[in-house]
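[Meeting: bench + compute handoff]

Bench side (C.D.) handed over the final construct sequence. Compute side (W.E.) agreed to return the predicted structure before the next meeting so the bench team could plan truncations. Sequence as handed over:
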Amino acid sequence: MTGKPKQSRTISWDIIHTQRNPGRVQIQEHQVPEWDEDSWIATTTRRIEKIAEDGVCGCLYLNPLYTVSSPCFSADFSRKARKCQANWYRRVDQVLVRKHRKRRERNLRFWKRQAAYTGILIIEGQPVPPHEWTVMEAKAT
């Protein structure tokens, strides 16, 4: 072999599975290194910082387990992001009892709660508050 080795351009070092669909919605599943809120917050924050450094734009949804990306917000993106959100909640509820998860969520500040539990929706580099997601979903359908 001669020449430079190929370098892959990935958002994160912890990707375990990617569904590629050029020009459409892509889903990346990540490893969750530890089962505690602080590591979830750090993992999600690290991915957001990496995305900002790389100048990735479009529509992104991130939680500790998934990164969902698309060139623009659409009904398909919303459906897949919500499915990833539900899968993340199911995984957390397997480790923490649901009522304990809800209590722990309430005790966190807004940004940390999103990074650890709800997930963060970013459109063109700007975070979108969760209460605006449903309005956007209604417009996209």
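W.E. noted at the follow-up: The first helix runs from residue 37 to 54. C.D. will use this when planning the next construct.
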